[in-house]
Amino acid sequence: MAQFEADAYGEEVCKVLSSQIKDSKVLVTGVTPGSIGGEAVIQISCRAPALLVLAGRNSQALQELDRTIKLETPNVQTRLLVIDLSSQESVHKAAVEVKSYPETLDILINSARVMASLFSLTKDGLELQFGTNHIGHFLFTNLVLEEILRRGASGTRVANVSSLGHKREPIRFDDYKFEEGKVYDKWQAYGQSKTANMFYSVSLAERLGDKGVEAFSLYPGRIVTRLVKYLTNEDWLNSRWRHPDGTLNNDPKFNWTTQSQGAAKLIVAAYEPKMSDNNGSYLACNAVRNDEAADYALDPQNAEKLWILSEDLVDQKFFK
Questions:
Q1: How many C-beta atoms surround the C-beta of residue 301 within 10 A?
Q2: Per-residue pLDDT tens for 59-80?
Q3: What is the DSSP secondary-structure string of 32-59?
């Protein structure tokens, strides 16, 4: 039986997991005010972590969130890390900074993401959603894990925020850039990137599980955040998320959750010790839900195929 209900709030999850959070050293990407990553770090900060690294591409947003945290918990040690996951140059720079920390991280929560954007390429020539949501995290996390393992640390956990949207598209191994945008569908592109997050978790568990690394992917629930900035009125209506009058559709099947409930799922994936026996799994509703994943999304052979492709795209081999 799962320890937490599907609709648990971040506050109650942190209370139960307070002994795991206390003295932990955690880095969370995509932490802006109004994001589930931002809400997660606010909740974690109240349970005495040893270090809380706020990672995002906008330094002003990071400073704003840091001020919010310090108003409630002035003694918590925070560190701000500017990283643009769509730029491999920025990722390398941020990784160098993290590797210079005297502390060794215990937890990495990869929460940053782009959703349903118009077709564009990253500075490295990758489709934006795939390049940001997967490749950016793949490169950054692997670079940081190399240093963690070099220091001889064990018990590191990586939580990769995926989505129910992974069911929209597997990995397009032969055409991950949608014919350079000619056949681009923003939802299929988002789905591909979220499948990639799941494959990455499978691969980390397979490659580094014997070294004490645990990795999980998770569906945080359907939440209205700044992530929806690319959605048009037509998107909202076609998805039936909104009524024609503009109000949200409260049909229970849409499973709308609050910021705190979404953050709870990140925190469970990052800290719940009972998950350790299911390394590489997909979580939803605060529990292992591999049976609810698309058939292709946890396949180890395709996960390995994506790992090799990802190494080619960042021009670097890891953990051989």
A1: 7
A2: 999 999 999 999 999 999 999 9
A3: -TTSHHHHHHHHHHTT--SEEEEEES-H
Q: Which residues contact 43 (CB under 8 A, 6 or more apart)?
A: 10, 11, 13, 14, 260, 263, 264, 267
| 271 in catalytic set | no
In which domain, by residue range, is 125 found? Answer: 10-314
Whole-number Å distance between alpha carbons of 21 and 52: 11
Two structure tokens written together for 203: 């691969």
> Contact, 302 vs 171, CB < 8 A?
yes
In a domain, 216, yes or no: yes
Cα–Cα distance measured from residue 182 to residue 172, given in angstroms and rounded to the nearest whole number = 14
The runs of H, that is alpha helices, within the chain are 10-16, 18-21, 36-45, 59-72, 88-99, 128-129, 137-150, 186-208, 233-238, 259-271, 300-314
Task: Report the CATH number at residue 143.
Answer: 3.40.50.720
Q: Is 157 within the bounds of a domain?
A: yes
Cα–Cα distance for residue pair 177/130, rounded to 1 Å = 8
Answer yes or no: is 227 within a domain: yes
Tell me, yes or no, whether 1 lies in a domain. Answer: no
Strands 282-284 and 287-288 come out as antiparallel
Among the options 9, 101, 184, 230, which is catalytic? 184
DSSP assignment string, 97-132: HHHT-SS--SEEEE-----SPPS-B-TTSSBHHIII
Q: Taking the chain, what is the end-to-end CA distance rounded to the nearest angstrom?
A: 37
Q: Structure pTM?
A: 0.91
pLDDT, one tens digit per residue, over 84-129 is 999 999 999 999 999 999 999 999 999 999 998 899 999 999 999 9
Q: What residues form DSSP beta bridges with 170?
A: none
As for how many domains the chain has, the answer is 1
